[in-house]
Design goal:
heterodimer, A: 370 residues, mainly alpha, three-stranded antiparallel sheet, 14 helices, B: alpha+beta, Beta-lactamase, 23 helices, 21% strand, elongated
Chain lengths: 370, 618
Amino acid sequence: MLLSDASTSHSLFRRIHLDPPLLAALLLLAGVGLVILFSASGGSEAQIWRQLTRLGISFGVMLLLAQVSPDTLLRWTHWIFGFGLIMLIAVLIVGDVGKGAQRWLAFGGIRFQPSELMKLAVPMMVAWYFAEKSLPAQTRHSLVALAIVVVPTLLIAKQPDLGTAVLIASSGLFILLFAGLSWRLVGFATLLALPLGWLLWQFGMHDYQRRRVLTFLNPESDPLGSGYHIIQSKIAIGSGGLYGKGWLNGTQSHLEFLPERHTDFIFAVFSEEFGLMGVLLLLAIYLLIVLRGLYIASQAQDTFSRLLAGGLSMTFMVYVFVNIGMVTGLLPVVGVPLPLVSYGGSSMVTLMAAFGILMSIHTHRKLLKN
Amino acid sequence: MKQRRALLKDPLRERYLFNRRAIAAAVLTLLLIAILGSRMAYLQVMRHAHFTTLSTNNRVALQPLAPTRGLIYDRNGVLLAQNIPTFSLELVQERVEDLDATLALIAELIEVSEEDIERFRHDLKRQRRFEAVPLRFRLTDREVALIAVNSHRLPGVEINSSLTRHYPQGALTAHSVGYVGRINVRELKELDPSNYAATTYVGKVGVERSHEAQLHGSVGYQQVETNARGRVLRVLERTPPTPGQNLYLNIDAELQRTAEQAFNGERGSLVAIEPQTGAVLSLVSVPSFDPNLFVNGIDLKTYQTLSDSRDQPLFNRALRGQYPPGSTTKPLLGLAGLELNQITANDSLFCRGWFSLEGDDHRYRDWKKRGHGSINLTGAIVESCDVFFYDLALNLGIDNISSYLGQFGFGRKTNIDIGSEASGLLPSREWKRRVRREPWFPGETLITGIGQGFFLSTPLQLANATAALAAGGKLMQPRVVGATEDPATPGPVPTAAVTLEEAAIRYPANWRRIIQAMVKVVHDSHGTARGISSGLQYKMAGKTGTAQVFGIKQDEEYVAEDIAKRLRDHALFIAFAPADEPKIAVALIVENGGSGGAVAAPIARKVIDHYLLGANQP
């Protein structure tokens, strides 16, 4: 099913521009998300209803974007990117402060988060930039593309919103890789990064930033402070074992030892209650989605669609890896939700919009005979 | 390069390039998922046991459960010490936003004294931030309601109910039952920390202290599940505490009340003992104090008032008051004379009012200036002739006197089961050499013979010696606690009587003669206690005594009349009844009471009347 093409048997889906395998996997994921959210929120029906509403809106947005053909999207790209960039600058000047960061713009009552728009606009813009170029990308083109990625990334990092900055940077960089950025250049950049990182550690970081890194490396050094999240999360996961403690029976979450249990750390709740078996199933669903995305990319008929689909799929992968990596103590704690499972977040709308684009790319292909 | 740039886009080549990169991306994706999967396997399989332990430690806490302290009853089941629920106001520092403002608000609502705040701030420093620190104890219902209504303005302020020790009889049994108080730092070191893990109070004096182990019981435990903030969610496992044992005292609370009232505001002490068993029927030390003041910590002002009082209400006269026994020792000395063949019953002596040693001008006076004339042993006891006993003491010698009186418990602790007693002083040649580094002088033997000089006895020792005399020389251990009761198996179990010294009497005839003389002290027209004989429905044996007052601090402030009162002799009386079959032996002292016969003897009569005839007798 994964690699079979949507054919005439799926003509209905084709007509409404949906990709059945991707849709099925996403719905399954949302269902799992609701089940674990019910447990993580302590059986709060209100939270379930709010999450359902959000899911409804998000799937609606997906359906909507699936109807927009890649050609139309291509024509809008530089307008969307330009608009997003201006909004980002506006946020830094006049934005609302929420939770210690400037992320919001208010238009009479409606609050708007430009960085979410940029999650789509940046990969679109990079793909747009390479659309008419011959590939593999030449170095000077790559540098221009890099600039398209770096400017909004820095603006978002300055808000500060490290999680989103990481996601946007990786979406742009993945498109660069798909555009044929030479491996030699990638290797060279990696080699350069090591001494640069050392210099940053020595001279470029504040004490508190160094402490945060050290806490990440050894959370037990600060068990009640910033290490608390990760220690409790690891206890939740580890105590889940092979088969878990059972749904609604997680002690770490229900006795409130686990912080942020229904948002960023919901994966720990899932692991505690469903064990390694449940985790492997969940990972399989994520894997399925990413691979389906890459397949859609490989089947796309033009450079823009191809690069965009590949970039969005890999960004989704980064989402999953950063969140689970953070919850299991592999990566430092940055605020990235587990896609479609974590409660709330305007990020869900953006995420589903990206899948809408993927479906659009897949269903707007012209049927060519080879 | 130039050539390639000139080329148009090559869709097939680009597609080929992209697909290779997409495969690389797929491999990367698989790799990342594999990393996550193996990380999960590491955490959930390899380190599962470790994290399970941590998870259990997180949520399960062991809480000690305080046992309920045993109750204390008198011999008739009258409650002397109980546990009553009281409400206290406690603050959890961690949850109080502004401590000063909160304290101020509480002070507006209910009464909080300076001492309360002082003690609270002192305690606060020693407690952890999430532990409740008490501010006020014994809240009234109205105060509880006032705090409850305003609880939304008082975050971190809690009202907790707990069992507090209460002594319904108040001052009546303070000197026997004693009291409990909060465990202090020094006691904390001595107590078993696990058994007292949940306990607030420990016995400080009296029965409460001496029988602490029985009254306390043993601690219980419960395993509880707590959430991250330490709130108990449910009990997983429970080992209930074993409640302490109930105690039934030998003391008769009503008899005690009669005795206390008989003192009529005078200072003094009375101890009543059942001669055959050593059961302490009454233990009076007046004035007394309200033991309830001490339970939750007495405030400094009240404590100073009590401890600075000239009447010394906190001082346990019965156990620790050491007085010269005076003439009350004469029957025993007479018995020693008969038993050691120093005199016979018929030997008589002419008393001319004084006695002097050979080669010494010093006159040892009789209380009766003109003397008693020709007098034998019985007469000397009945009229309390000093000269007769000067002579007898001299004949016996100090060594015989101290060894014989020692058999009746003088000069050593009686071993009473509530402890903290003084040992009195029975002088001897050896004692004087050891302590005073002086030889013994014959004159000292004379005054020892009339219970003066170095000779000191506690009211308890005197009562126990009287009981031993009544029981034909059998010295018992005085016991306040008469029976224990395990709450699990109701029904009091009597404690065993302990005999300290078996019969010091070789010839019962000698003993009977002394008892007859003591009966005459009360019933004979010459007896020094004849004043109490009218209407007496049983035969009482007794002996009066007076003790000279030494070493009274003379404060210049006192009015002359008062000084005179405080320099008056102590009045003493010992008695037992019925004389033929003694059921109760009594010793008592009225400080600065003056005459033993006139002041002390009537108190003994009231107590013995009550005991033998019932509470409603005149």
